Amino acid sequence: MYRTRVGDLLHYMPTWGWFVVALVVVDLVVIVTWVVLRRTAKPTLASAHAVDAATQDEVFALVSARKKVEAMKLLRDRTGMPLRQAKDTVDAVSSGRTQ
């Protein structure tokens, strides 16, 4: 019975095979880095648009009263935030991830 060693198998791998393996490894590193950085990014209430203290207090009050839609409308009206950013900001407030 013939026993195959890993070294014997790697010897027969073509050159382009190593290139494919390297590409897969680089892709995995990029994806993992992107996921880690995305999870550690903490949105703040005053991220790109200026939010005054009164607006911030009202947003916190609306979120604590479970009125997220009203909080998003308030942010959009007073700061001009896009809908997606207002939603992300209100979600961050509701989960306690603001500074």
Concise account of the structure shown:
This is Ribosomal protein L7/L12 C-terminal domain-containing protein. The protein has 99 residues and is mainly alpha-helical.
What report would you give on this structure?
There is one protein chain. This protein has 99 residues and is mostly helical. It has two domains: 6-40; 53-95. Helices cover 70% and strands 0% of the residues. The protein has five helices and no strands. It has helices spanning 6-11, 15-40, 53-64, 68-79, 83-95. The protein is rod-shaped, with a radius of gyration of 25 Å. The termini are far apart. The mean pLDDT is 82. InterPro entries: Ribosomal_bL12_C/ClpS-like. This is Ribosomal protein L7/L12 C-terminal domain-containing protein.
Topology diagram in text:
Elements: H1 6-11, H2 15-40, H3 53-64, H4 68-79, H5 83-95
Helix pairs in contact: 3-4, 4-5
- From N to C, what is the helix and strand string? HHHHH
Oligomer description:
single chain
What is the rounded Rg? 25 Å
- Helical amount among residues, as a percent range? 55-70%
* Overall number of structural domains: 2
Q: Give the strand tally.
A: 0
Tally the helices.
5
Q: What structural class should be given to the helix and strand makeup?
A: mainly alpha
What best-fitting shape do the alpha-carbon axes yield?
rod-shaped
Mean pLDDT: 82
Low-confidence stretches: none
Cα end-to-end separation: 67 Å
Please state roughly what percent of the residues sit in beta strands, choosing from under 5%, 5-15%, 15-25%, 25-35%, 35-45% or over 45%: under 5%
The largest β sheet comes out as: none
Keywords: Membrane, Transmembrane, Transmembrane helix
Transmembrane segments: 16-37
InterPro entries: Ribosomal_bL12_C/ClpS-like
Protein name: Ribosomal protein L7/L12 C-terminal domain-containing protein
